[in-house]
Amino acid sequence: MYQDVILDHYKNPHGRGLRDGDAEVHHVNPTCGDEITLRVRYEGSRVADVSYEGQGCSISQASASVLNDLLVGKELAEARRIQDTFLELMQSKGRIEPDDAMEEVLEDAVAFAGVSKYPARVKCALLSWMAWKDATAQALGEAADAEPDDAERKTA
Amino acid sequence: MTQSHQGLSGLLDTEAIRKDFPVLDRVLHDGKRLVYLDNAATSQKPRQVLDALTGYYERHNANVHRGVHVLAEEATALYEGARDKVAAFVNAPSRDEVIFTKNASESLNLVANMLGWAEEPYRVDHDTEVVITEMEHHSNIVPWQLLSQRTGAKLKWFGLTDDGRLDLSTIEETITEKTKIVSFTLVSNIMGTINPVEAIVRRAQDVGALVCVDASQAAPHMVLDVQELGADFVAFTGHKMCGPTGIGVLWGRQELLEDLPPFLGGGEMIETVSMHSSTYAPAPHKFEAGTPPIAQAVGLGAAVDYLASIGMERIAQHEHAITEYAVRRLLEVPDLRIIGPSTAEDRGAAISFTLGDIHPHDVGQVLDEQGIAVRVGHHCARPVCLRYGIPATTRASFYLYSTPAEVDALVDGLEHVRNFFG
């Protein structure tokens, strides 16, 4: 579960700290007290920045760092594809062995494949991703995203 | 492994006791022997309890208090026999003061609802106050919040000192003439603190307030004498004291149970029913609507027999010795901070701690890889975490079958955790 990649991101998080943003959200994982405050900034449809502060376990913190690496600089459609792929991996209950195609999309994030076997920890890994989705919906005013997002947040 | 535990006194014969608990033989993760240190969450069950459950279903299963056939009579005798056993276990003046519920949460909710619907002088309403403490389990916070929100009563609480004790310096202002009930835990589930019952009961009695004690973390571990406590209600749960899940207890003083209204209505709690109104059975049945958890009560009876056969004083002594040793060993671990009393004085066998800035979830996961089961999180006592400025703790909690070698395994495991995340 604790791949070196995860421990590296945990010990040296990328892009941590709050910077200017178009929207800010605060998400918590009530079962363990993981918390994240996350801001997104968009330049048109490009993810210009994702900044965050949080406290929590190595999985939740490393996941936020990986998210920052993966999504900043991407077009929104591409960022969403990455998010969907990560979600698919994390909900696979350990049944997906990431292939080359998935690794190309997720890069460091494939290291979380092992976490998907631990239901209690999947929520930790998804915390920042759900926060990003929520913040993006707020920043871009996409009401269409609101409903599934709420449902996901309740389980998170 | 350190051998510094030799010479501890007051220990039980854990080698013999552990033979009663089949699950303790489990081997996890490639040959790691289970080290079960999550007893404050739930205890393991001895063979005697498992046999009582199976025996009940195999030979006696029937609904209680109805039917005249043999099985119905036997099931009723077993269920009511369990009530006798529990009454004796807590030294209740009368067996009719023992109400079976499904767990301690239900017991506490029952008290809150009795008082919300009660007539004077017990009624909790907008002009009255309810007092709890900052170290309560959520099950002794939320029912009182609900009661306060619904009635307009003011909810007050005792804060905590830096070393995990109740700050009773404000007792006169906190418990006042307006206070209807003071509800507090006898032993903290997160910090292990044993609270000074007498001081609180005395003040409550001075102002005419009722006292409810959450004994969930006390009943499994020490002599629990409801008459000595001097409280009006005592709640606890079966599954933390070697019994099955699904069975809890509320003890209440007889005259109160007579005066206070029922909460749940249904079968078994009535005397007569017409389409317009009903009259109620006397306590405890007034508070036990519907088919009760029969097998679970029988299992709890067997658990109480089991604990009594060893002796609660000896169990308390054993746990005290283990706790003293565990506190000493844990404080040797660099960067480890105990949340709660840092000595074994007036504390139970649940020890919460933080380990540097390593998140408890990570501590728990790496300990699990070594076969060591601890609880991580806020332990349903989030206000305590807020009070001490931490998101969560790791909690090791011991019981009658815990050994000094398991304390050593925990300490070695924590060293491994430190190296892993260091």
Terminal residue distance of chain A: 20 Å
Structural class of chain A: alpha+beta
CATH topology of chain A: Sufe protein. Chain: A
Numbering strands along the chain, what is their spatial order in the largest sheet of chain A?
A: 1-2-3
Span of the ends, CA to CA of chain B: 21 Å
Write down the CATH class of the largest domain in chain B: Alpha Beta
Per CATH, the architecture of chain A is Alpha-Beta Complex
Number of strands of chain A: 3
Q: What overall form of chain B do the CA principal axes indicate?
A: globular
The name of the CATH architecture of the largest domain in chain B is: 3-Layer(aba) Sandwich
Oligomer: heterodimer
Overall 3D shape of chain A: globular
Biggest sheet architecture of chain B:
7 strands, mixed
SSE order of chain A, one letter for each helix or strand: HEEEHHHHH
Largest sheet of chain A: 3 strands, antiparallel
Helix content of chain A: 40-55%
Description:
The complex is a heterodimer of chains A (156) and B (422). Chain A is of the alpha+beta class. Chain A has one domain (4-143): Sufe protein. Chain: A (Alpha-Beta Complex), CATH 3.90.1010. Chain A is built from six helices and three strands; from the N terminus they run αβββααααα. Chain A has helices spanning 4-11, 58-71, 76-90, 100-106, 119-140, 146-155, and strands at residues 23-29, 34-43, 46-55. The two termini of chain A are 20 Å apart. Chain B has 422 residues and is α/β, with parallel strands linked by helices. Chain B has helices at residues 14-18, 47-60, 70-89, 104-117, 142-151, 171-174, 197-207, 226-229, 254-259, 294-310, 312-330, 360-369, 382-387, 404-421; strands spanning 27-28, 32-33, 35-36, 98-101, 129-133, 154-158, 179-185, 210-214, 233-237, 248-252, 270-273, 278-280, 336-339, 350-355, 372-373, 375-377, 393-397. A seven-stranded mixed beta sheet of chain B has the order 4-10-9-8-7-5-6, sandwiched between helices. In chain B, strands 13-14-17-16 form a four-stranded antiparallel beta sheet, covered by helices on one side. Chain B has a two-stranded antiparallel ribbon with strand order 1-2. Chain B folds into two domains: 14-33 and 311-421, Aspartate Aminotransferase, domain 1; 49-309, Aspartate Aminotransferase, domain 2. Chains A and B meet through loops of A and helix 12 of B.
